[in-house]
Design goal:
Blueprint lengths: L7 H17 L10 H17 L12 H7 L18 H14 L4 E5 L4 H13 L3 H5 L8 H13 L2 E4 L6 H15 L3 E5 L14 H18 L1
Parallel strand pairs: 1-2, 1-3
Amino acid sequence: AQDQLDDPHAIITSHTDRLQALLDRPSDRGGFRSMSELMEFYHAELLRIQAQGITQAGLSTGLKDLDELLGGWQKSDLVILAGRPGMGKTAAALTFALHAAKEQHPIGFFSLEMANDQVVARLVSMVSKLRLDQVNQKQIKEADMGAYQSARELVASLPIYIDDTPGLHYHDLAARAKRLTQRHKIELLVVDYLQLVHGSTSRQDSREQEVSRATQGLKGMDKVL
């Protein structure tokens, strides 16, 4: 408590999360499993996929070539979408989320940079094909109201849940993601964006160390959820 180098809120969050993890952990969690047990589980999944006629195990990205490379978004995968500023990373992430949500797969979206209003405007613009600046500024012309109304109804029906709380530590993010997943059976979780996630409790850590720890935290989270 007297260490001035550490952020008190981050320390409390970190230890609360660890205590909760201990409470939630079954006694046989993790550990070694035999190949016969693992093979049985794999074979059961294979039969289930064949019986249901599933041609792709993961959620579709909406891009055929990418689906062929990745097999869609796979459970327990951490996928980092990288690019320089202004290249459309958020637009791409929203496009992926929108495609999955249209297929009624519940999506969690942490928007650490944009406010809820801005995310909604982007989705409306994508669905309606209206200019983003027009939708963002709520200056929609009378002639475009039909397209807006159709987009409004579709966007309102999408199973997308947005949290725009800024400056989240990955412990906070993991706790919120767990509650959301339990409540809505989330199948795809989007974090926009990684470098805005706090990944350390120490003020001495470099930016590289903080991003690295945030990445490790997110990877641990996706395996658990």
